[in-house]
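Reading is simple: each integer encodes one residue's backbone shape. An example follows:

___
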Amino acid sequence: MSGTKNAPETPRQKMIGMMYLVLTAMLALNVSSEILNGFKLVDDSLHTSIQSIEEQNNRLYQEFRAMDEKNHEKVGDWLKKANQVRTEADALVSYLHDFKVAILKRADKEQADTLYARTIERKDDLEAAPFYALKQGNAAILKEKLDAYRSLLVNLTSDDVLTQEAFSLIYNTEKINGKSWDIATFESMPVSAVITILSKYQTDVRNSEAKIIHYLKQRTDEGDARVNQFNAFVVAESNYVMEGQPYRANIYLAAMDTTKKPDVFIGGSRLQSNLYSITPTRSGEYSYSGHIELPAMGGAQPQRFPFTAKYNVGKPAAIISNDDLNILYRGFDNSISISVPGIPTENLRLTINGGTATPRGSGRYSVKPTANSVELRVSGLINGRQVNLGGNTYRVKQLPDPKPYAVYKDANGNSQSVFDGSVHGPSFVAGNPTVTAGYGEDALVQANFSVRSFSIRIGRRTYNSNGPRFSSEQLDIIANMPSGTPVTIQRIRAVGPDGIDRNLSAVAIEVL
């Protein structure tokens, strides 16, 4: 009971098919009375489905005949094919009913339900179905009839490969798990299961009949481009506009035929629906093109309607300003990023008064002040012209003094930083110690400082070093001093990116 694009499976049909598969698989286990009763529940659902589909099919045939009366020249040949399907479907459903009755007669004898073939007394009988189907050869006859019905449906849908594949799958009578179809279907099967399987085939026949009638009815509209629904559409040039910029939109009345689903192709690939969805991984301007195919009936060439479109992608951004922290640092490459929601960064331009701005890509700039205040302004290319989008003025200050540290590697090779604490003398000396300066990992601004010189004070004596490394004299003294001796690292001179020579605070350590 697989669905096709002409008449998709209903949720009820999917549920019945799933129950049928599950209960069939459970036959490999102990066939309990509960399982056999489960087959009865599935069979009852199948009969309800058959009745519903037959009522639907009768309405379809009535509509078909009404169409033929209005335009026999156009509809007559298609109605003739539909009547052929109806004749073959009725005959196959009747044969399946007789097949069930014959099995029930052998299983239930005189108590057999020969009218409806739905009431089963000996549900667990494992002999009746194989005897009638296999020993008496009736399974082979049923296989031929199913194959013939499948061939009829496939031939009638010669221009629809998907529908042909669906019919071939529904009426597949090839080997199942290495066994022939008749053996796999009837051998060692209880009566309750076989009756359900045959009811399933009756449902398939009626469901396929409905699909083929839908298919043939649609073919009567060969070459037509009819409409049965009108919708109003508003297509804006952009859903995002700036103050002072015009908002423009084209307003259309679109006519469509809800009975014909067009195929949408983007770059040669067919979409599953008319919804085109893509997730860009970078900002910028994108464009795409494709065409819409309106299917024609009876093998005629579909109508094609080409289209092109473009869209802009910007990074998600929330603009939050702290007026108290509008600061740039003198002699330092301050990192600045600009963005405007709805405008790609490549369409933005930064102008500066009181400094220089070096682009770093993706809306990022390095700004170096040359005055006591810096004004930054942003403009954007909108609809072919530059539009002022605002700006800000920043105060310029000197970089704050960094914090000095004594840095060395411990016995495990891990870097240790000491500002006010204790160290093990031999380990400190062996760890290639240096003096460095910085703002720390959590600082908002990061800058590199170079230590030019420092000295250590032990008691009243001072020992000097040029550069960031401890001198040999300093290391010898630290290595041999008694435990608990305080050492002060002082007169630390460092230079940052602004070129200013700074005297930093002292570092106090205790040598253990």
Observations:
- The two ends are 85 Å apart (CA to CA).
- Confidence is low (pLDDT under 50) at residues 1-7.
- Residues 33-70 form the longest helix (38 residues).
